[in-house]
Amino acid sequence: MTSTPVARPDEVRRYNRSSLLRLLHVGGPCTRATLATELGLNRSTIKTLVDGLAEAGVVVERVPRPGRGAGRPSLLVLPQPEAAVVLAVDVQVEHVAIALVGLGGQILGRNSWNLHGRGREPAEVLTHVIESTTLLAADLAVKPVAGGISVPGVVRRSDGHVHEAPNLRWSDIALGERLAAALDMPVVAGNDAELGALAEHLRGAARDASDAVFVSADIGVGGGVIAQGTPLRGAGGYVGEIGHMVVRPRGRSCYCGNEGCWETEVGEAALCRALGLPDDSPRGTIVVALRDLGRDPAAARGTLAEFAEWLTLGLVNVVNLLGPELVVLGDLFTALPDTVLDHVGAEVRRRSLVSRAIGGVRIEKSSLGADVKLLGAAEAAFEGVLDTV
Ligand SMILES: [Zn+2]
Q1: How far apart are CA 290 and CA 271, in angstroms?
Q2: Are 192 and 175 in contact (CB under 8 A)?
Q3: Distance between Cα 222 and ligand 1 center (Å)
Q4: Gap from CA of 338 to ligand 1 centroid (Å)
Q5: Given strand 362-365, what is the order of strands in its sheet?
Q6: pLDDT mean by block of 10 residues, the chain; 389 residues
Q7: Same structural domain for residues 253 and 275?
Q8: Going by DSSP bridges, is the β-strand pair 107-114/95-102 parallel, antiparallel, or unpaired?
Q9: CA 241 to ligand 1 center in whole angstroms
Q10: Which residue among 12, 173, 261, 333 is least packed, with the fewest CB closer than 10 Å?
């Protein structure tokens, strides 16, 4: 005879507590009544949970600023940022940023440096990350309890092993384990587009979308996928290498071994070619050129016509394959003139069968800007923290 396992009261309490914290962490301050409604719990259970968290210093309750409504206002439950602080690291090809992020998602402090002229070797980057973290934590008088690190490469989710980060010239680096050992805390390492998708889903443009794709466009192009409200991982966590969809047979050679990958047509070098700039132009130069071009919509559409066509073609494939209701364009794509993005969006909606079937996929720019991967790395770190605060 089998019996249905029954959750023990302490397990139920722990589950409810972490659900409540997750709600406050992502959604921000709210009243006990809202918490009760959102979590489907009765008021006395919420009171017990909130009282316990307040006693532990994880939340506080405050009277909201006076509004126009009459009557006594309900107390707001606020997460205390210092109650759980995580380290977020965003390693880009030219640049590294770190931040200490508190419960509720607030960046408490940050530091960043260019990799020009500095060592780009993994050991040098790690040393600098560790030193900067120690200094920042001392400055802020906080102690991070977990870390997340974003890398533009193929990263094994289970242990943060970087198989390849070609634009950094990294391969086979036990990045997650090394950082975890040095800082003596758990560290999650992930692909930059995957973490970008997580951030946009929790805090950005894809907040209300349960099926979304985030497209990152640095030197390389990658994708992160949210399917039915959760990150799509694939075997080993490697899903989303959309920059290496072959879109142009016998096209340009790509480091991955193929020719005509999407990345060779819409990555940073391709954008430079379209703008008549040298392939290795600094990011600032490219952004300024795009802004100038955007002042003359007709010229922008003309100059970027071929680039826009490759962008459209790849996005049609992405939408047909993954069926998102929303595609969020990040990084360099956010600097494209609006007239070009509007045209690309309209063409994707016209040419994608899936888009037509769902009444038109939305294509929007990232709303988190340059911090998207930093915030994603923080959220990856928080995943293991909210159960234990
Ligand atoms: Zn490739």
Answers
A1: 10
A2: no
A3: 11
A4: 28
A5: 230-231, 221-227, 212-217, 326-329, 362-365
A6: 69 92 95 95 95 96 74 87 97 94 97 82 95 98 98 92 92 96 96 97 96 94 96 88 96 94 96 95 94 97 98 98 97 96 98 98 95 97 91
A7: yes
A8: antiparallel
A9: 9
A10: 12
Q: Which domain CATH number covers 312?
A: 3.30.420.40
Same domain, 89 and 24: no
Please tell me the distance between residue 66's alpha carbon and the centre of ligand 1 in angstroms. 57
How far away, in angstroms, is 273 Cα from ligand 1 center?
18
Q: Number of folded domains in the chain?
A: 3
List Cα–Cα distances, 140 to 52, 82, 324, in angstroms.
26, 10, 40
Cα torsion at 86, 92, 97, 99 (round to 10°)?
Answer: -20
Task: Tokens for 109, please give them.
Answer: 């402090």
Structure tokens at 156: 């094994």
What is the CA(264)–ligand 1 centre distance, in A? Answer: 8
Of 336, 314, 304, give the one whose Cα is nearest residue 251: 314
* Structure tokens belonging to residue 26: 């992502």
How many Å apart are CA 13 and CA 39, to the nearest integer? 13
Give the model's pLDDT for residue 69: 60
Q: For residue 68, what pLDDT is reported?
A: 60
How many C-beta atoms surround the C-beta of residue 36 within 10 A?
A: 17
Q: Which residues, chain by chain, have CB under 5 Å from ion ligand 1?
A: 244, 254, 256, 258, 261
- What is the model's pLDDT at position 9? 84
310 is written with which tokens? 């490759």
Read off the tokens for 8.
Answer: 């023990």
Q: 259 CA distance to ligand 1 centroid (A)?
A: 7
| Amino acid sitting at position 280 | D
Q: Could you tell me the distance, in angstroms and rounded to a whole number, from the CA of residue 244 to the centre of ligand 1?
A: 4
Dihedral sign for Cα 202, 203, 209, 211, please.
Answer: negative
Residues 218 and 184 in one domain: no
